[in-house]
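[User] Could I get a sequence and structure tokens?

[Assistant]
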Amino acid sequence: MPAYKRILLKLSGEALMGDDAFGINRATIVRMVEEIAEVTRLGVEVAIVIGGGNIFRGVAGGSVGMDRATADYMGMLATVMNSLALADTMEKAGVVARVMSAIAIEQVVEPYVRPKALQYLEEGKVVVFAAGTGNPFFTTDTAAALRGAEIGAEIVLKATKVDGVYSADPNKDPKATRYATISFDEAMAKNLQVMDATAFALCRDQRLPVKVFSIFKPGALRKVVLGGDEGTLVHV
């Protein structure tokens, strides 16, 4: 039995690159979609927020002289491209998906409307939220926290390259240990940087737990959804 009825999955754009330097690696996106499809077959309602760092990252663009707001809008458009690729791959895998954008591009994707998103989820469709929050200066982590709260998700699943939150960088410190669970306050006190500060505060205030796990570990998403000991649970 799944531990959750409705989840918000946060994917980084970089996760789609696989071993490539940029863009979308076909084998990687197909494997990710297979894992997501497996979870939907368990009867779990799935919403997804995806970043755009594999195509364009607003913060990086702003740091080299570009206007930050302009760079962030470009980053939002990159997330729309990733969302379309993800939804297309899902449809080919037999999963019905809908992309909803926080920025109006109605010839390409439908606008985000909360009641419509809830209807899609109740119908068993996967909803991919594109274009972040629709505002510059906010990350896709914040979009994940915001949409998760709006749709009444029971948990935000943050898919990363590492299999949880560690006491130190496991790539640099061999003594680093993984937390099975940790409170929001403890994570903030230890400056563990699970998500950006705005997203983290929003999840804490809304009492919305966050599970950090590795999307590159086969079967990890299914194990998380079934309530197994995978990754790190950040809770109130």
Q: What stands out?
A: The chain has a mean pLDDT of 95. The beta strands are 6-11, 45-50, 97-101, 110-111, 126-130, 155-160, 181-183, 210-214, 232-235.
